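Q: What would this complex look like in 3D?
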Amino acid sequence: MGSEIIVVIVVATALIFDFTNGFHDTANVVATSISTRAMPPRVAVGYASILNFVGAFISLEVAATVAKDVVSVNANSIGLLAVFSGLVGAIAWNLITWYFGLPSSSSHALIGGMVGAVFVAEGAENVFFQEGIIGKVMVPAIVAPVLAFIVGGLAIVFLYRITGRLRPGPVTGGFRFGQVISGGLLALAHGTNDAQKTMGVITLALVANGTIAEADFHVPDWVVISSAAAISLGTYVGGWRIIKTMGSRIHKMDAAQGFAAQGAGSTVILAASHVGFPLSTTHTISGAVIGSGAAKRLSAVRWGVAGNIVIAWILTLPAAAFIGGLTFLITRLFGTGAVGPIVVSAAILTGAAILFARRSREGVAPGVVPVTGSPPA
Amino acid sequence: MIATVVDWDAILQVIWVSLLAGVGVTAAYGFALLGSTRALQSGREGRLGGAISYAVVGVLGLAIVIGAIVFGIVILTGD
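A: Here is my prediction, written as structure tokens for the whole assembly.
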């Protein structure tokens, strides 16, 4: 019975993480379409939410990587507590970075949290540092944003060459229509890569609980549907926050740049999803936006954002791993039953409520960080 | 060590697919815009030959975009 309660807590925690992922990433997905006026904000948010949901169904390669290739857990209560602690590590790091305005990546935090918790709980032999972490997480984490930068830059150079002599009116209209397609693909790509990470973690918990045999690995349908729904709902709810803050914080890019950036971001994320690389979608989309801006005018790019991505690369994995490992040790103080996860969940919820309340009192709305244009006034 | 633990085939696949799809499809859409805009302009000016040529460019560009998206989704859903 105790392990069933832990499974329920892990699934609920994973879905909350998935929801916050969608909530946080809405800006990345819809900002370009809204800033170029390709779509009205409400339409863009609803559209992204639906395609996030659909995207979660088109592939399971990333889920398999997260569940099998990064860490493995034994089918016992320790394994289950490790999965729970990894999730808490990721959520706690996301909350801390959100509160202090530090750059982060939900995806890297999730993987870091899992690695730290499993390392402490099960030992180094259950963490696949080489093929898993270096081969499938860290190298793609570096390649993807750089590739998106190059693709976004090349794409806009070609677009300006092909359409540069046409009258601006019809061309802008054409690119705005194109952004309906490219923005949709970006939302689809985001749903595909990010929702699968949650599916992978829930499946890992089911393996630890003995519900799924490791030899018979599969992602149950209810896991796919619930993860898709959570990220989709998060995107929708997060969108309303973005709509409120959009006016002052997004800087205009032209429709061709928006189209090129969205096309570059979505192709890199979809190609990586096909081979099972769990990427930071935020970093990849930022790389594409910076690339499309840099190709037009180097000074238009806020290079500080690129620096933030590098800082996030360096900080997120070890910090989330540390918190994940520490969370396991704290949870373990209460034994191997459900008491530890209940106490830790209550603590993290209380901590989150305090941070949200303090942020609200300070009146600082976390919003969209523009990567091109001038700094906000 | 990195050379042996990284699945370079997968990385290279991501790189060439992204370059081909990201740049190629975007450029194809550019040609679709070029073709349709110039076809309308040529038609208004009574240059039928030019209008037809540009319309073909536009239709081809759009066909490449639609074909690439459908092909990509079919490949992904086959995972």
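A: To summarize the key features: The mean pLDDT of chain B is 92. The longest helix of chain B spans residues 8-44.
Q: Very helpful, thank you.
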